[in-house]
Design a protein that fits this description.
Elements (H helix, E strand, L loop, with lengths): L4 E7 L3 E8 L4 E8 L11 E2 L1 H16 L7 E8 L4 E5 L9 E2 L7 H9 L3 H8 L8 H11 L3 H6 L3 E5 H9 L6 E3 H4 L5 E2 L4 E2 L1 H7 L8 E3 L6 E2 L12 E7 H8 L8 E5 L3 E7 L10 E8 L2 E10 L3 H11 L4 H8 L9 E3 L17 E3 L7 H27 L6 E4 L6 H11 L3 E4 L4 H13 L10 E5 L5 H21 L2
Parallel strand pairs: 1-5, 5-14, 9-12, 15-21, 21-22
Antiparallel strand pairs: 1-2, 2-3, 4-7, 6-8, 10-11, 13-14, 15-16, 16-18, 17-18, 19-20, 22-23
Helix pairs in contact: 9-14, 10-11, 10-12, 11-12, 12-13
Length: 490
């Protein structure tokens, strides 16, 4: 019998990817489709749920004609987290946009809940402080704005879910509405100790329980492909679903506490396993990393709202072709000439959690050139990661030996070297940048009974190359810029 392949989907904010992965983790084929994000108002961010599903169909169909496609034994899904969709169970049509994780449209509602004293309950139950990042307040917003939304929800005609649930529903032809523990843990509606939807939080956020999916282990056999859903034949099992950051951590081979990874995507997630559920005292989140065979692993995480996207934003602002060209421009100067860019383009995420502030550039002078601003944009990504890394060390009460990285922006050598310089620790990068899909495939392999093959080996290690005084000078300028932006918010 031919060795099995896993078709792994990585549905992200800016693109959708699919990989054909062997049992030992080798990628033999890939496909990609771009995604568009709309910003209808300041602080709002959304995508078309229909376009999102069509992008997944596109990449699956491209791989379905691969000469080895007949060996596909399972599908695996990793997905952008905290983005939420509400749809009609009968028609499968979304009743509004996919309100994505970057969106801050429910800031006022979240602030009202905090002012009313509910944050302690939410954080104790979920590990997450009340914030518009999470789906709970977004589901209520969608129900309240859809014509007849509340009545339809009360009648059981609507379903709600994160991107994994939406994809599963479509792949199975509407037969299955489910999610896994990692994605459920990010909704702010799930009790991460009891492993069940919290009636108290559902009532607090105004979310009817009938909307929500069943929750299973990340390596569950969630369902099978329906005829006509894609170009794949009917009956192929969907054998893994897991949030993209969690999948990347798994792809790094992390199975025990003491190791931190950073995924440099549109935003950046730093995550480390912890022995038991944790409540952060330094602006981070406690969460579920994944679950295998019903056994749950927990993690601590810091989410940066705008990270790799910083380079694309600045490239457009400076009239540079793309993020890669911005990196080349940044590399043409030895430093930022004291320019600091704080990319609070949708507010600041961890460890600050300030939705009201916006980005600033400081330190401009007559000698400032576009290359200095470009370099400041690249450096801003590393500064934000350094802040979260320091918060993780404070929460776990121990220094960390280094950082393991993945994601598109991790391919930028200038960024990775500056990252090592600014944290004063080695940064290791593997040969596969997109580890989310590979990690999801590895979980599917466990679900198929193929065993745990471990993670990707480091391909290159970046070691710190500046002295302590220079490092501190960089950090002081960044700290001053952060202090200024925090003081100017409302």
């Amino acid at each position: 019998m031919s060795a099995p392949l896993i078709l792994a989907i990585d549905q992200g904010t800016t693109n959708t990817k699919a990989l054909l992965v062997t049992a030992d983790g080798a990628v033999i084929a890939s496909a990609s489709a771009p995604m568009t994000v709309s910003y209808p108002q300041s602080g709002w961010a959304e995508q078309s749920a229909t376009d999102l599903w069509q992008s997944v169909r596109t990449v699956i169909n491209q791989l379905a004609v691969h000469p080895e496609a007949g060996r596909i034994a399972a599908l695996a899904i990793s997905n952008q987290r905290e983005s939420v969709i509400v749809w009609d169970r009968a028609t499968g049509a979304p009743v509004g946009p996919c309100v994505i994780w970057q969106c801050r449209r429910t800031s006022a509602a979240c602030e009202a809940l905090i002012a009313a004293g509910h944050n302690d309950l939410v954080e104790r139950t979920t590990g997450l402080a009340i914030n518009p990042l999470f789906p709970a307040s977004k589901i209520a917003w969608l129900l309240d704005r859809a014509p007849g939304g509340r009545a339809a929800a009360a009648a059981g005609r609507l379903a709600a879910g994160t991107v994994d649930s939406w994809l599963l529903w479509n792949l199975t032809g509407g037969a299955v509405h489910a999610t896994d523990h990692s994605n459920a843990a990010r909704t702010q509606l799930f009790d991460t100790r009891r492993l069940a939807w919290s009636d108290e939080l559902l009532d607090l956020f105004g979310v009817p329980p009938s909307l929500l999916p069943a929750v299973g282990s990340s390596d569950s056999r969630f369902g099978v492909t329906a005829a006509g859903a894609t170009a794949l034949p009917a009956g192929i099992p969907i054998h893994a679903m897991v949030g993209d950051s969690h999948a990347a951590l798994f792809g790094h081979g992390v199975r025990t506490p003491g190791f931190v990874k950073a995924t440099y995507g549109t935003g950046t997630s730093l995550m480390s396993l912890v022995p038991t559920p944790i409540r952060s005292g330094h602006g981070l989140s406690g969460t579920i990393a994944w679950s295998l065979g019903g056994k749950v692993s927990y993690a601590i995480e810091g989410n940066i709202s705008v990270s790799g996207q910083t380079a694309a934003f600045m490239a457009e602002l400076l009239g540079v072709a793309d993020a890669s060209a911005l990196g080349d421009l940044a590399a043409s100067v030895p430093d930022s000439h004291s320019v600091v860019f704080v990319p609070a383009l949708v507010g600041l995420g961890a460890p600050w959690w300030r939705n009201d502030v916006r980005g600033e550039i400081t330190g401009l002078a007559l000698g400032t050139k576009p290359a200095h601003v470009a370099r400041a944009a690249i450096e801003a990504i590393a500064f934000q990661v350094a802040d979260v890394l320091a918060a993780i060390e404070a929460d776990i009460g121990a220094p960390l030996a280094g950082l393991s990285v993945d994601g598109g922006a991790s391919r930028n050598d200038l960024l990775m070297q500056f990252q090592a310089d600014i944290i004063g620790k080695p940064v290791q990068r593997g040969s596969v940048a997109e580890l989310s899909a590979v990690g999801a495939a590895a979980i599917a392999g466990i679900g198929l009974g193929l065993g745990d093959r471990g993670g990707a080996a480091a391909q290159r290690v970046f070691t710190p190359a500046i002295d302590a005084a220079t490092r501190q000078g960089h950090l002081d300028r960044w700290a001053a810029a952060i202090a200024h932006i925090l003081s100017t918010g409302r």
